Amino acid sequence: MFCDQCGMEVAEGGAFCPNCGNRLNGDNVQAPEETEVRQEPGMSAEKEITEESVVSQGENTQRRFCPNCGTENGMWDTFCKECGMPLDGTAYSVSAAGQGRQMNQPHGAGVNKKKGLIIGICAAVAVLVLVLIVTAVRSLAMGPRGKVIQAVAATMGERPEIFDDIKTAGDILSGDQYTVGFAMEVDGDTVSGEYRNTAANKQIYLAADVDGDDFDVLCGIHSGVFKAAVSELDYVFAYDPKKENDGYLCEQLRKKELEQLNAMLEHITSEQASAKELRKDMMSALLQESEQLEFKEVKTKEFEVDGKDRECDGYRVRINEKNIANIMEYAGEAMAKRMPEELGDEFSDGLEELIDEIKDDDFDTDITFYLYKKKLAAVIIETNDYGEETWIIEFQGGDYRMQNVFISLQYDGDTYGEMEITTRKKGSVETIDFESDGDMTITYDTKSGALSLEYDDGWTDCFIEGIYKHSGSEVSFTLEEFEMDGYSLVEDEDVSFMIYVKKAVDIQKYDGTEFDLGSAKEDDFEELAEELEDTDALFDNLGYYGIYAPLFWYRGSSSAPAAPAAEEPIAEEAAEYVW
């Protein structure tokens, strides 16, 4: 495992990191078990034991007990593994060890208690010095890989606050239970939707209210069974892959296609398809390959850090086509085993062909990490696939290392692009500037949640502003302004928009008469088609407002024209104007 403070790799079961002294997970620290000793008949509880033999698996091993805490130690141990007290080789009574008293301690008035206290303090200091020496030696002995991991962790741990707040959404989505939704209103017409996810249920809900016409759609896969319902129809369309489906719809599919459909539906909500476990396996694949990479020291190089030129230590690692192929192979195996067998086999075959092509290619990518004071000063990425391409990322620091970052791209020695990222904070307002061919500024108030983004590349000028709210269980962004080249969609078109992510999931029930898609005959579908004709006008209006109207807004029209009647086609002139 790795220390979450410095990134040092430490052995399982350790209580403290040997590099920085950070206390590790308390679950790894195990309290010593009490030693139970049977007392022989006639033996006094205070009798000294100078050499106690214990038979274990046919071998004689010797036990010694700490005079301070009573913990059992190995015969050749110098210090107690529990409290660090020196073991001087003198035998102790089993009974006294449990009480923390030394049995052969001198008795009588000649005992100098003060002297004993001084000896104890000196012993404690000696143990502390020994720990410091071991820590220093381990730090000096840390290899390039460990130093790079430590530097990356320390650098990335200090970042603009907006990244930590936005990360909350990623934390929610990394679980297997969440809801992603949006709500939009345009001139009184509303459209909203949600995707609801649990291990056994994947459900989508869409709702629209256009010119007083309500339209709701609910569909999902629940323990492998597909269901769908539309508000205008009193039906719940269902398809259960586990049934014997011999209806009209299934007859139109080839046997192989039907089998693949059934397998996919059953697999989507199976435990094997868990997204959380897939991410875990993918990360494991990356770590497994990274452990095979060799980091080497290179010459020091000078970079600007915290306003001054600094000599920085360099460590280089080379990544080639074999490393990329191995990562793809590991990741592909993780994905394939979560697919239905037949689909997984096809996926693996296609991936294998791609991996063979990568292995036939010959390229090397050198990544050099330059460190200053155990943090990143620069990262240089060099490739020679179709020419010498070099990416240079400099962490120029300030209040923290990622406050000012400079990125440049060079091709065959010529600079093709540069970007400077600068972060500043005044009070609760944090501002991040991206200066390149196009300039972008993100402003975030860490207290109120006011968030804005402004972009200008000389051709297009865009401004977005809203309120970002977050908690451990829900994140949302409410749009307050959206300007494009000086034209406000929000004010002129009376638009409101919100997106959100939350942990809570409400799987909605389906209402209506079940229509079994797997067993329904051709006559059943014909009757259904007749009922659907009554909803054509609503579908046409929704399609017009949902697709065409935004295109009119972008063209600069003050308002979208009225929708044509459902039975009338869009005029050719209007269609040309739209597109």
Write the layout of secondary structure elements.
Elements: E1 53-56, E2 59-65, E3 72-74, H1 94-99, H2 113-141, H3 144-156, H4 161-173, E4 178-186, E5 189-197, E6 201-210, E7 213-222, E8 225-230, E9 235-239, H5 248-251, H6 255-268, H7 275-290, E10 295-305, E11 308-320, H8 321-336, H9 341-360, E12 364-372, E13 375-383, E14 389-395, E15 404-411, E16 414-426, E17 429-435, E18 439-445, E19 450-456, E20 461-470, E21 474-484, E22 487-488, H10 489-493, E23 495-502, E24 513-516, H11 522-532, H12 536-555, H13 572-578
Parallel strand pairs: 9-24
Antiparallel strand pairs: 1-2, 2-3, 4-5, 4-23, 5-6, 6-7, 7-8, 8-9, 10-11, 11-12, 12-13, 13-14, 14-15, 15-16, 16-17, 17-18, 18-19, 19-20, 20-21, 21-22, 21-23
Helix pairs in contact: 7-8, 8-9
What share of the residues does DSSP label as strand, in percent?
A: 25-35%
Largest sheet: 21 strands, mixed
Question: Which geometry do the CA atoms define?
Answer: globular
Q: What's the tally of helices?
A: 13
Q: How many beta-strand runs?
A: 24
Assign a percent range to the helix content: 25-40%
Alpha-carbon distance between the two ends? 57 Å
**Category from helices, strands and their pairing:** alpha+beta
Averaged pLDDT, please?
A: 75
**Stretches where pLDDT falls below 50 for ≥5 residues?**
26-62, 89-111, 133-141, 541-579
Q: Which radius of gyration do the C-alpha atoms yield?
A: 35 Å
